[in-house]
Amino acid sequence: MFLLYNVVLSFSLWIISHVIFSVIFSVICNHLKLPITHSSDVVVSSTFLDKIRIFDTTRGSSKGWIGPVSIEITMASLPKRIIKETERLVSDPVPGITATPHDDNLRYFEVTIEGPEQSPYENGVFALELFLPDDYPMEAPKVRFLTKIYHPNIDRLGRICLDVLKTNWSPALQIRTVLLSVQALLASPNPNDPLANDVAEDWLQHEDAAIAKAREWTKLYAPRS
Amino acid sequence: MLLEFTKVYPVFSWSWDICGDDNPPKENEGGEEDVCGICRVSYNGTCPSCKFPGDDCPLVVGDCNHNFHVHCIQQWLDTSTAKGLCPMCRQPFSLKRGVAINECQMDRLAKLLIHAQPPGLSDDQDLMMEQEFVVR
């Protein structure tokens, strides 16, 4: 009888302490603004967990807490597709291309593209920026050259004239395919569909001189460090 | 030996029937998981804006044999860039006849496609330049 009483007592003590601890835990979490998720449908790999957490705590706002246990946290959520694409860009990078998401904004990527071999941009490393608009993938990423480049389809502000970035965008395309297209554009400049008119004119009239100038600019502005 | 069943747990699984009556199921090529070409989530999962897979977030089968969550393809066809084309093969998108899961979506997508502009015969490059300056 005494034994049974003992068991019941210790069991109830265990329950009580469990409840107290969970309440304390959730209060602490609320104060630290840690996101408490009971079931998450987004699987985030450990590589990006840190970044996602930074994102949550800075962008997420905790809406007035009703009780210590029910906390509502709204997150500026990043679509699964963007997370997947970013992971793959890191785990399985495209040769000659790097794309790193910015710590503060996971939709903003710092990009480098190596100039294709046997093109005037050979041995150059070009910096670009890529931004995924809110409507991505229904809308194309915004891509711009940051490094100065002498190319008939890239103007002095770094804007790129490329069909897949405009009218021929398709949601089946991805960050990696877009960047590959940009790299291909470096390999085959198209002066007949110019964006930088002066460069295109130069290219059509004195091709050798234009290519030499593109090489010179590559050496000057896009040296491999 | 005598076996006695004390409990039985039935387990069910489901998947969209994307094959018409006359098409046998195709072998999965390349070993890649079957995902929606737009959101890259499994066919049997949901589009990014839905929570529960199944009837709330159905799949549709294109005439070109490309499949999408109906919400994904609707959103795409609703954009002006889409021009009514399939994102995967750029052929005019239409629903395949004789596929059961397509039937209840026919009307809605047909309405969307009426608004979509068929790809014009005008010079694409000129159009592109125009957009370049409008966008910026």
UniProtKB/TrEMBL annotation, chain A:
Please list the residue ranges annotated as the UBC core domain: 77-223
PANTHER family listed in its UniProt record = UBIQUITIN-CONJUGATING ENZYME E2
Please name the top-level EC class of this enzyme. transferase
- Residues in the active site? 161 (glycyl thioester intermediate)
Q: Would you tell me the protein name for this molecule?
A: E2 ubiquitin-conjugating enzyme
Gene3D superfamilies membership: Ubiquitin Conjugating Enzyme
Coiled-coil residue spans:
none
The record's keywords, sorted A to Z, are:
ATP-binding, Membrane, Nucleotide-binding, Transferase, Transmembrane, Transmembrane helix, Ubl conjugation pathway
- Transmembrane ranges, per UniProt, are 7-28
Please provide, alphabetically and separated by semicolons, the GO molecular function terms listed in this UniProt record. Answer: ATP binding; ubiquitin conjugating enzyme activity
- Native source species: Lachancea lanzarotensis
Q: Which family does it belong to?
A: Belongs to the ubiquitin-conjugating enzyme family.
Catalytic activity, EC: 2.3.2.23
Q: Which InterPro entries match?
A: UBC, UBQ-conjugating_AS, UBQ-conjugating_enzyme/RWD
From TrEMBL, chain B:
GO cellular component labels: anaphase-promoting complex
Domain of life, per lineage:
Eukaryota
Give the UniProt keywords, A-Z.
Cell cycle, Cell division, Metal-binding, Mitosis, Ubl conjugation pathway, Zinc, Zinc-finger
- RING-type domain: residues covered: 47-90
Which one of the record's GO molecular function terms can you name?
cullin family protein binding
Work out whether the entry's keyword set contains Repressor: no
Q: Which SMART domains match?
A: RING
- InterPro entries associated with the record: RING-box_E3_Ubiquitin_Ligase, RING-H2_APC11, Znf_RING, Znf_RING/FYVE/PHD
Q: Which residues constitute the signal peptide according to the record?
A: none
Keyword Membrane listed? The answer is no
Q: Which CDD domains match?
A: RING-H2_APC11
Among SUPFAM superfamilies, the record links this protein to: RING/U-box
Q: What processes does the entry annotate via GO biological process terms?
A: anaphase-promoting complex-dependent catabolic process; cell division; protein ubiquitination
Q: Which PANTHER family match?
A: RING BOX (PTHR11210)
Name under which the protein is recorded:
Anaphase-promoting complex subunit 11
